[in-house]
Amino acid sequence: MERLGEFLSKNEDTLWSKFLNVLKKRLPETSFETWFSGSKEIALTGDNRLIVQVQGPSFYVEYIEKQFRPLIEEIKTELGFSEYSIIFSPIDEENDREEIKSSVLQKPKKVRRKRLANLKSDYTFSTFVVGKSNQLAYFAAKRVVESPGREYNPLFIYGGVGLGKTHLLQAIGNEVFAKGKNLNVVYTTCEQIMNHLVNYLQKKRGDGFKDTLRNADILLIDDIHFLQGKDMLQEEIFHTFNYLFDREKQIVMTSDRHPGDMHSLQERLVSRFRWGLVVRIDPPDFETRVAILKKKAEQFGLVLSEDTYMFLARVYKKSVRELEGIITKIKMLSSIVEHTLTLDEIKEVVFEEENKGRKIDIDRLAEVVAEEFGISKKLMKSRSRKKEILIPRQLVMYLAKEYLGLTLTKIGDYFGGKDHTTVINAVNKIQKRLSTDINLQKHLNSIKDRLERE
Ligand code: ADP
Ligand code: MG
User: Fold this and answer.
1) I need a labelling partner for 183 at 20 to 30 A (CA). Which of 235, 250, 407, 441 fits?
2) Which atom, in ligand 1's list, is nearest to the CA of 127?
3) Where are the domain boundaries for CATH 1.10.1750.10 in the chain?
4) Domain 286-354 falls in which CATH fold?
5) Which atom of ligand 1 is nearest to 295's Cα?
6) Which residues face 87 on adjacent strands?
């Protein structure tokens, strides 16, 4: 509270400080602290606009608008400042992301004793959601724990960023410990090996790292693609590989690409990497994405509606990290606003991200719908009122709203500047029609299927 007092007195002379004084009395302390502490008047323009910067990214502004605008207006009248308009502005976007990141990172973690210093304790097989896209890698990793050094040696797991390679790799280590197996598991990254090597070459003094690697019963090397073009490192890994392989010790590696697609990699290493089993992890399919979202939400103690999971799974398709990211964000926002975000609120959060180009856009949607009905996109975007054209057009509007979560204005714009009442009418008409028109339902399902496969 002292901090607060100090802060208020610093703001004393500004118009905004008068608001703060009243807000402080009207709002619960935590609410005030969360939303308004640190907010400051940054400009009072000639046309009576009072610009207030809040201490948070743009979604803060949205929530302030939503939750506190009526109160702010009320206070404005009470204070006799009706002629002013109050405009909230976020702190700048670049800093935003850092803020979000650090506040998420700072969340207190459950304290659990780690069995091995460099393994994340929640990267286990049980927290890993298995689907078509990753099941081969998953089962191979499990087999490695059952019979290390025998069946798949080396095991080489490759795939894009954020698809669970590190998770699986560390799950092997965690599982060995959980089962109390008397095996020496070493997890490291290729980069770490490089650093030790450089250190060794500079100081001409070993730090025992080489021995650490060679003493492993199971050696887990993450991001092996890092060795592309690094001859000395390749040499070192080649010898370590041979040493362990000869002794039937298990080696598991991850990479962002297939051994055959690595550039500047010695041929003898390429062939060794392919001796055992090479498995790929693909981006998760729709059902797996839903399952992952549910699992992540559950881990956060969040319960979201079925529609929400489906909506998010349609939007975020590229990596598991994205799915995790949006759930983390929802969790954080929910705790700030002290209720679980509704689907509509979540859609708003997602729109913000839309600009980052993650979504199927309306144009693609229009294309798919046009194809489904066997008409051209151009015709669909025309002014024709023919039923064969009108219904697909209205269906695009409906899907753009319900499926992509676009605003009515944006949808209207796409169709050459139709106003939002036209759009909402179209949406309502389709909604009504869908309850009785089986044919339209079939079309809708087939369109959704197509979009989900993209
Ligand atoms: P990669 O190493 O392939 O870039 P990570 O293993 O770091 O990806 O995964 C990114 C995030 O997604 C991690 O937090 C991980 O726990 C999570 N994750 C990835 N795949 C799954 C999955 N199938 N089930 C649950 N969580 C997953
Ligand atoms: Mg990784």
Assistant:
1) 235
2) 25
3) 362-453
4) Helicase, Ruva Protein; domain 3 (1.10.8)
5) 25
6) 51
